[in-house]
Here is the input.
Amino acid sequence: MAVREGRSAKWSTWEEPLVTGSMPGSTTLEATPPPLIYGAGETSPAGPLYWATKRCFDVLFSAAGIICLLPLMTVVATVVRLSSHGPVFFKQTRIGRDGIPFAFYKFRSMEMGSEERKHALLHRNQAEYPLFKMRDDPRVTPFGRVIRRLGIDELPQLWNVLRGDMTLVGPRPHLPEEVREYRPRHWTRLEVTPGITCLWQVRARKELSFHEWIESDLEYVQRQCVWLDFSIMARTLLVLFSSDRVY
Here is the structure.
């Protein structure tokens, strides 16, 4: 995986593959990353004061959220563990700021081996490639449908926010294979820290195509400010209780 050498670097081209691996499910990040030389330079209007304020709010809110929601998360973890075979948490590699990969966490909502079964379900995909979304996914457990509907499966990402891998508001982190599909100007979305919620989630949600999703993220990068972040968080609460939450 390529990593930028400095925040002032201007991206121009990407000459090496983002990931390697020839078999389904065997894709891995490159062991020795080439220098980041692909993208569009700094485009966010946000300054140091914004980033400091955002980080302070992230730390306070995520820490408070973990403490306050610990009883709920304990119950969810217990039910996940007892209702289906497998670990409590689902861990996955996602691509973060500056193209740096990190471990992304959710409560497990699918049966074990769901990643391997995905290839047999590609013909039922209801989203634009490289995304994969489908209604009534047979891999999702009964309890998994409940926590997905309520957005509870995302709560472990508060730990990602506390660690600094993610922020409360920012582009959702993509999988390595999804990042490989970026067009040149799309790399700008990697100039900011990925988040739990962002503009596309409070707009059309799953109706957006892959590239429309990224365009919405680019709009966020260009408009970043404290008030926009608070607006997105408030609208996210409305989406959580809508009838069109998620697949």
